[in-house]
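Ticket #4471: structure export looks truncated?
Reporter: QA, pipeline team
Priority: medium

Steps to reproduce: submit the single chain below to the structure queue and open the exported record.
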Amino acid sequence: MTDTTVLEIALMTMLVALKLTAPILVPALVIGFVISLLQSMTQIQEFTLAFVPKLVGIALSLLFFGKWMLATMVTFTGDLFDMVPSLLG
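Actual output as written to the record:
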């Protein structure tokens, strides 16, 4: 196994991690920004006001994108297992 192969696998891993976390992080970021803006305009500083909408948004995101995320992870894992013989020999 060469250093190029290791870098290629690391790059693939980081790209898959980015693909899998984006559907969760983007809605949480947008919801957090909107709630923060609302809190700053109304001077309401309640922790649950920010937490509960994020939790609901993340749950909906997982419900909507969960199948795609699982398929992406299974495909990536299969590709890694397919690479094992070429890495050993």
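Status: closed, not a bug. The export was complete when the record was re-opened. Leaving a note from the reviewer for reference: The CA atoms of residues 32 and 51 lie 8 Å apart.
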